[in-house]
Write a structure and sequence with these properties.
The chain contains 16 helices and eight strands. With 321 residues, the protein is of the alpha/beta class. The longest helix is centred in the middle third of the chain and has 22 residues, at 151-172. The chain is globular and about 60 Å long. Bound molecules: adenosine-5'-triphosphate and magnesium ion.
């Protein structure tokens, strides 16, 4: 079970067009190039395009076939890509009605994803903060939020992180009605209202039961949230990562790892229509070094002491179950 913590990564970010899919592909290709076995998952249900980006025009199988039980084992929808060591589970259009899978469908999907044979499984999430997108984000023990230095992207990323954090927290306290109610209040509070910060939520939870506060602290520590700033154009923009990190730490009490930045790279914009060709004949570009650095962080992450699955997902003391 410990290996799940190292191998599952979700790439989200709230805003559309910030480069989640490109980052997913480039990190996947970089890891694959270092001999790691990688499976990318197009979890942008309803708006999938990873297959097109890697040069698969008509996917033979998609996630919809698995979700709708056309195939029983998720292994059967894994497809090869032109990049050695990198495979893909294609997404599907919403015509197939899978943009909002039922919770039983999600549970089955998550259980199968965990069992896939790969060193790294990287989930490319859709834009926005739908429940399904947040559930994918929360499911993966390692969460990378991609944003650009634009103020709207920063706001969206912060909103996405905050909304996901609270959704996960409601799950943590799902069997504790009073604590759950406080979390719900905090999640919708406007600034100036009673419990409008994690700090105040901690206080309120503490006054109910000290154990609740420590559950909250453990949850925050284990969220394993990271950020990447994409399309950076100058030195000043490189600092955005540190600013977001300190805002998240101050206002959400959330440890956020700054995984680095990717420069704006014309080659990436220009190659979008010939991504598979680009991936196969990849020459070093100004962004390749950044992706290499970020995969270094991802690989080093595995060397941290592993924590048990129960510590990064739902954690309610057995005594209160
Ligand atoms: N570092 C970069 N430099 C230049 N262009 C980039 C960079 N990263 C991404 N792009 C370009 O930005 C556009 C959007 O990228 P991408 O499709 O990966 O975004 P996304 O976040 O996945 O969008 P969506 O939310 O719609 O799925 C693409 O044209 C891509 O080539
Ligand atoms: Mg995308």
């Amino acid at each position: 079970m410990d290996e799940i913590r190292n191998k599952l990564w979700a790439i989200g970010g709230g805003k559309g067009g910030v480069g989640k899919s490109i980052v997913t592909i480039m990190l996947g290709a970089s890891l694959a190039g270092q001999g790691k076995k990688v499976i990318l998952v197009d979890a942008d249900l309803g708006g999938s395009n990873l297959h097109t980006l890697v040069g698969i025009k008509y996917p033979l199988y998609t996630l919809a076939d698995f979700i709708n039980r056309q195939v029983e084992n998720i292994k059967d929808v894994v497809m090869d890509t032109p990049v050695e060591n990198m495979q893909l589970i294609c997404g599907a259009d919403d015509i197939l009605g899978i943009a909002n899978p039922k919770s039983t469908q999600k549970t089955r999907l998550f259980n199968h994803l965990k069992k896939l044979d790969a060193d790294y499984i990287v989930l490319d999430l859709g834009a926005g903060a739908s429940f399904t997108t947040m559930d994918f984000f929360l499911f993966a023990p390692n969460k990378i939020c991609v944003l650009t230095p634009q103020i709207t992207s920063i706001q969206n990323a912060y909103g996405f992180i905050k909304a996901s954090l609270y959704r996960g927290l409601i799950q943590v306290f799902r069997n504790e009605p009073e604590a759950k109610e406080l979390v719900k209040l905090a999640s919708t509070a406007m600034s100036g209202e009673n419990i409008d910060s994690i700090e105040k939520l901690k206080e309120s939870l503490r006054s109910l039961d000290q154990q609740y506060e420590s559950d909250l602290n453990t949850y925050l520590e284990n969220l394993q949230m990271k950020i990447i700033i994409n399309m950076v154009r100058n030195d000043r923009e490189k600092e955005v990562g540190n600013i977001v990190k300190s805002v998240a730490e101050n206002y959400l009490n959330l440890p956020l790892e700054n995984y680095g930045f990717v420069p704006y790279d014309k080659i990436l914009t220009n190659s979008i229509n010939q991504m598979s060709e680009f991936l196969q004949n990849r020459k070093d570009s100004i962004s390749s070094l950044s992706f290499y650095d970020i995969t270094g962080n991802i690989i080093r992450n595995s060397q941290k002491p592993a924590i048990h699955e129960s510590q990064f997902s739902v954690k309610v003391p057995a005594s209160r179950l």
